[in-house]
Sequence to fold (77 residues):
Amino acid sequence: MKTVKISLNSIDRVKSFVNDINRYDCDFDLVSGRYIIDAKSIMGIFSLDLSKPISLNIHADKELDEILEVLKPYIIE
Fold:
């Protein structure tokens, strides 16, 4: 599992993020405070406070480099 911080501060970013990760067969969890939601659920994402960075847990081994490349626009260091 790999954890990165991401920013989803607009509706368009949320939609494109969900479209990007739905191409992969592995699981993605978003963690905000005490809430953990499925990152592939657009409704779940909108239940979070999107004004702050969110932790994304990526449960993948084989495609991890490719996934991180696709998610580069959302990742904050």
